Amino acid sequence: MTGLPAGPRLRDMLSNPRADRVKGVRALAGRSARDRSGTFLVEGPQAVREAVRFASDDVRDVYVTDAARLAHPEIVDEGLEAGLYVHPVTDEVAQAMSADAQGVLAVLNAHAEPGLDALPSAPRLVAVLSAVRDPGNLGAAIRVADAVGADAVVLAGDCVDPRSPKVIRASVGSVFHLPVLRAPRLTESAALLRERGLALVGADVSGTVLLGRDTERILATSHAWIMGNEAWGLTSDELRELDHVVRIPIVGQAESLNLATAAAVCLYASLFARS
How does DSSP assign 188-215, residue by residue? Predict the structure, then answer.
């Protein structure tokens, strides 16, 4: 690679877009390949940078083009300093690995997803996402939770794989900043969340409490925001598990907010209530 000295962790240039290694990296876009290999793919300079900085023990390989090296030298420098394997690749190889990586990719080891027993002690704010299926929504919600300083994100029930490249890309690396935990359906997890001292606050159009001044007292205490599926929201069984059901005010003609926007509104309300 242009401008890079030889070193024990710097690999030779990869130039064959049809090589087995390249095909293996590209296959990680699919869940079955991730499950078989025990690895997952991180795409793009921001997400790879955060993986190198916050999850370097799990980084198996970093792939970077010459142009990306010049634009983001800190990724290669920090990767080599951490003793990671850095692979220079041609533009054709990078494109064959991923069309969305902007010349920078990494492959990380995957571990068994932690459960609620990994929830930090005495949490103040947790985001619980129930049956979220859209990777863009999930990634964006994780990013918001990171931005407001949430203690964890909990994926309850049948949620999309948080190691999907689309989730990681939408989170812009925030998946490496805070715990992302797996849990059974909310109806089975509610008691465990309460045992950690969290009030369960749901966001739903059926709410009788309006987000704003009426929720400042609720949000000043330790709580978990519960967000439902993009299509049907929270189920009747889930609503019965909640301590408070809050409605986001809508004064215009919009029918509702999408999941990521609703999560941003609610989590920032919690941040403001604590400040």
Answer: HHHHHHHHTT-EEEEE-TT-SEESSGGG
Q: Residue 183: CA atoms inside 13 Å, Cβ hemisphere, count? A: 29
DSSP 121: S
- The predicted-structure confidence for 177-226, as pLDDT tens digits, reads as follows 999 999 999 999 999 999 999 999 999 999 989 999 899 999 999 999 99
- DSSP 3-state helix, strand, coil percentages of the chain (rounded to 5)? 40, 20, 40
| Amino acid at the residue 26 | R
Sheet hosting strand 244-247, strand order edge to edge: 180-183, 152-156, 125-130, 223-227, 199-203, 244-247, 209-210
Report the length, in residues, of the chain: 275
In contact, 123 and 152? CB cutoff 8 Å = yes
Structural domains present in the chain: 20-109 (3.30.1330.30), 116-274 (3.40.1280.10)
**Per-residue CA distances from 88 to 3, 40, 61, 62, 261 (Å):** 11, 19, 11, 9, 38
CA distance 224 to 154: 9
Q: What is the pLDDT of residues 53-101, one digit of tens each?
A: 999 999 999 999 999 999 999 999 999 999 999 999 999 999 999 999 9
33 burial via Cβ count (<10 Å: 0-12, 13-18, 19+): middle
Mean pLDDT of the chain: 94
CA gap 239, 7 in Å, rounded: 57
Cα angle: 135, vertex 141, 143; to 5 degrees: 105
Percent of the chain with pLDDT over 90: 87
